[in-house]
Amino acid sequence: MAMGAANLMTPAERRARRLVQVRRLRRILPIAAIALLAICLLQVVVGGFSGATPEAAQADAARMLSPRFSGRAPDGRRFAITGESGVRSEADLNQIDIAAPVLTLQDGERIQRMTARTGVYDEAAHTLRLIGEVKIDTGGQAQLSAREAVIDTRTGAISGQKGLTVQAGAREVQADSFATDEDGDRIILKGGVRGRLEAPR
User: Fold this and answer.
1) Which of 22, 79, 102, 125 has the most CB atoms lying inside 10 A of its own CB?
2) How many Å apart are CA 113 and CA 137, to the nearest integer?
3) CA atoms within 13 A of residue 153's CA, in its CB half-sphere
């Protein structure tokens, strides 16, 4: 019946009918295109979020708040490393970057305390590298400060290649590099050693 009705239509009526269909298509096609574009964008956004989630979870797992590492050397020495925050390196899981680190070394009743702006703790090598405004309290009368220092947490030995200042009362000694023995009783100064002694008044 529909085919017969179409055959009975005059050419003018057929043209009018086609114009109506074209107008409908002109309205429908843009809407369909917009809907298809929205679906594609939604898939891209959802895929991006799902792809980023494991990376974000891994970053959160590597980040630490108030990290703390402690241990005991074979000879009985104890050490503790704390800080404001820490990040474990993805390239080397033994390396932890620590903000505002504090190292405490205890040998019997003697306690040494060291601080810095930042630090890098190597769990495998048992070393802590302090960087920036390093302050070293050896538990004696002298106070040490340096730009950088490396501490072996097993032995308590300290060394550095970035300058040292030793302050003991009115005496002050500076050097380009330094090292201490395991007990911290002896400091070996190397390169550009210079000192100042103020006479008592």
Assistant:
1) 79
2) 5
3) 23
> Looking at residues 55-77, what average pLDDT do you find?
76
The average pLDDT across 124-135 equals 93
Do residues 103 and 127 touch, judged by C-beta distance below 8 A?
no
| DSSP string for residues in 124-183 | TTTEEEEEEEEEEE-SSS-EEEEEEEEEETTT--EEESS-EEEEETTEEEEESEEEE-TT
% residues pLDDT > 70 (the chain): 79
Enter the tokens of residue 200: 């008592």
Encoding tokens for residue 3?
Answer: 């085919």
If DSSP codes are grouped into helix, strand and coil, which group holds residue 110? strand
Nearest residue to 184 via CA among 141, 121, 120, 125: 141
Count of positions (residues) in the chain: 201
Q: How confident is the model at residue 29 (pLDDT cuts 50, 70, 90)?
A: confident
Q: pTM score, two decimals? A: 0.64
CB 149 within 8 Å of CB 130:
yes
